[in-house]
Amino acid sequence: MALLEVNNLDVRFALRQGDVKALRDVCFSLDRGERLGIVGESGAGKSVAAFSLLNLIAKPGYIAGGSITFDGQELTSMSDRALRKVRGHRISMIFQDPMMTLNPVLTIGEQMIECLKAHRRISSREARAISLRKLEQVQIPSPEKRLNHYPHELSGGMRQRIIIAIALLLDPDIIIADEPTTALDVTIQAEIMALLLELCEKHNVALVLITHDLGVVSQVTQRMLVMYAGRVIEEGPTREIINDPQHPYTQGLMNALPQMATPGARLNQIRGSMPSLNKLPTGCAFHPRCDFATRPEGTPRAACTDEVPGFVSSGNCRVACHMVAEMQHAERIPVEEKPS
User: Fold this and answer.
1) Is 94 helix (H, G, I), strand (E, B) or coil?
2) How far apart, in Å, are the Cα atoms of 66 and each of 6, 8, 187, 219, 283?
């Protein structure tokens, strides 16, 4: 049995004009020690999916349906008191901005000790010793001194290392990392991701990595989900999706990478923009931006405009696209040669 199983997850936000569906029928699983990447444009639902795992959706958001099973326990129906034993303990989260996560008026040591004592019955001395060991694990220089520092006294990379140390404090089974390197420069990003990968492998910790960076996903994760407008549209082994994307949206993401463009030419891009969640197109949500949703003679494909696509298998991947079966039995147009 998988460590984490998400089935038919439906998350909505109750607004005056009606409920907005932020997530629709999201399904995936995560084994112990496995690394899963979730990618997509801003507004695709990546962070909402991550926050849903710990039922951290703020009102007016709520989980409207589906199940989230962690180690045999159903999290969606769990009481707040029971959830507190899971959050930060068995499932930890690393947020985008460490300055928004760390308390500016408490020292690093006070925050780490407080976290430990909230979940374990130990003395402050024992908690401090554990905190010191975790800072050493994330390669913080002079860790004894850092315990007495306030967040503003540390660099961005140092703060993110401390956030990782706090996430590892209670030896979790899963770490959810939501854009963990967004606020850092490229060199520090690489160091932080290498450190996170090393720690997860060493301690057999499962990782859910939310990012828009396909390069990071290809280097860190074993499996990936591609999300669009609140729905998973492609899932499978990372290498297989990166090397041979099946969904037109995934192909567009790959083509948008700078290295896919001819030097000196304009960068490739997916035309249009992500639809508003309260005004989703009928049928496949991607069809207004998709080159394959229109027939060669210029007429729209009825299936793409009228029917929400189900999943079909393509190799080891699952793809939600009406065109996959047709492309499997015909010579598929290479991504870089798609008609404009």
Assistant:
1) strand
2) 8, 5, 40, 31, 22
Q: Is the pLDDT of residue 111 over 60?
A: yes
Q: Indicate whether 124 pLDDT > 90.
A: yes
Distance in angstroms (rounded) separating the CA atoms of residues 75 and 55: 8
SS3 28: strand
pLDDT tops 70 at residue 241: yes
- d(C-alpha 178, C-alpha 95), whole Å: 5
- pTM, two decimals, is 0.90
Q: What confidence score (pLDDT) does residue 338 get?
A: 41
Residue 44 in tokens: 């695709």
How many CB atoms sit inside 10 A of residue 69's CB? Answer: 17
Give residues with Cβ within 8 angstroms of 200, minimum separation 6: 33, 35, 175, 206, 207
Question: What Å distances lie between residue 208 and 179, 191, 250, 278, 305, CA to CA?
Answer: 10, 18, 19, 27, 33
User: In terms of DSSP H, where are the helices of the chain?
Assistant: 46-53, 80-84, 98-101, 108-119, 124-137, 143-146, 156-168, 186-203, 214-220, 238-243, 248-255, 302-306, 324-328
Pairing of strands 18-30, 4-15: antiparallel
The Cα–Cα gap between 58 and 56 comes to: 6
